[in-house]
Amino acid sequence: MRIYLLQSVSKTIGRRFLATHNVRKVTHCIFDMDGLLLDTEQVYKKMLTQLCANYGHKYTDELMMKVLGGTEQRLSEILCKELKLPVSPHEFRDQLLKLGDTMLAGTPLLDGAERLIRHLHKTQVPFALATSSSERSVQTKIASYKELFSLFNHMVMGSTDKEVKFGKPHPDIFLVAASRFPDKPDPFKCLVFEDSPHGVTAGIEAGMQVVMVPDPHLDKQLTKHATIVLPTLAKFQPEIFGLPAFQ
Fold it and tell me: Is-cis flag, bond preceding 169, omega within 30?
């Protein structure tokens, strides 16, 4: 059963955004990147639409939901199989990476992302990045924000990290991210920030609470498993989870 977390929260973020009643205090934060910190999802949609069109196929919303939040390898495997493409998943992934070298450069930060990152750093809350992207893609995306992303304790890049055996919705990436903090917190004490349903499932399966910032057009049924759902990171109130409040 879903209830209002606090009266002040419902007033601030509107009646549409609800949270579960069993919110716990946390000590560490783990962030997804695409569609949460950086506005890359529409860029990826253009890239995949272009690649699929090269083989005479449409990149549909149904296909998008199947690959959302997954690793580059898994995405390529799904599309090659579903569309019966005349290339291997490895070849498709190479095409995707090459296209991303130019199209993903300079993507803007999303609302509230920089403020929250700098606040956590200032108040000495440990935080990490856990993205399904490869190191190559990540470096392209953060090239314009190197100082900001240097504030993260560490980054786990699921498509190229050997310790991440399975991508989202499996919990591997978040468990690996938690294990790499110097004090190795219990996953129970970690708070995940995500935008995709698969990412939320991965966080929940890891034993963590999840703040979801979904695409506004996403079916609301696909957001129900999140601990709390927000329209943007700018609406996040750290004190709800026992973290220092914004000043």
Answer: yes
